[in-house]
Design a protein that fits this description.
The protein is an all-alpha fold and 105 residues long. It has one domain: Serine Threonine Protein Phosphatase 5, Tetratricopeptide repeat (Alpha Horseshoe). It has five helices and no strands. Helix 1 packs antiparallel against helix 2 and helix 3 runs antiparallel to helix 5.
Length: 105
C-alpha cells in the first residue's frame, strides 16, 4: 500500500509540474501531451482526452481534422466542464456544466 502512495504522490507532482509548464507555455503541444499522459496515469482520463482533442485541433493542420474542428472543440469543452453524457437523450443538470475549472487537472 505504501508503494502505491509513493507512486500517487509522484504522479500528482508530475501533474503539478506539467500544469505549471502548460500555464507558462500554453502553445507547446509536447507539454500538453505529457500532461495528458500524467492525467491518465492518475485516473483522470476525461480531462486527458479533452486536452488531447484541443491540442490536436490547435496543432495539426490536417484538413479532415480541421474540418471537424468545431465539433471536436465542442466535445472537448463538454468533457472538460462535465456536461457531456454518454447516454442518448440526456442533458447535463449538474453545476459543473455552468462553471469552468481553473486548470487542466
Amino acid at each position: 500500500m505504501q508503494a502505491r502512495s509513493a507512486t500517487s504522490t509522484r504522479i500528482d507532482e508530475a501533474i503539478d509540474v506539467l500544469a505549471e509548464a502548460r500555464h507558462d507555455r500554453p502553445d507547446d503541444p509536447l507539454v500538453a501531451c505529457y500532461l495528458a499522459l500524467a492525467l491518465t496515469s492518475a485516473g483522470k482520463a476525461v480531462p486527458a482526452v479533452a486536452l488531447l482533442l484541443e491540442t490536436a485541433v490547435n496543432h495539426i493542420a490536417d484538413e479532415p481534422l480541421q474540418n471537424g474542428r468545431w465539433a471536436l472543440t465542442n466535445y472537448a469543452q463538454a468533457l472538460r466542464y462535465g456536461y457531456w453524457s454518454p447516454e442518448p437523450g440526456t442533458q447535463a443538470t449538474s453545476a459543473a456544466a455552468s462553471s469552468a475549472p481553473s486548470n487542466d487537472r
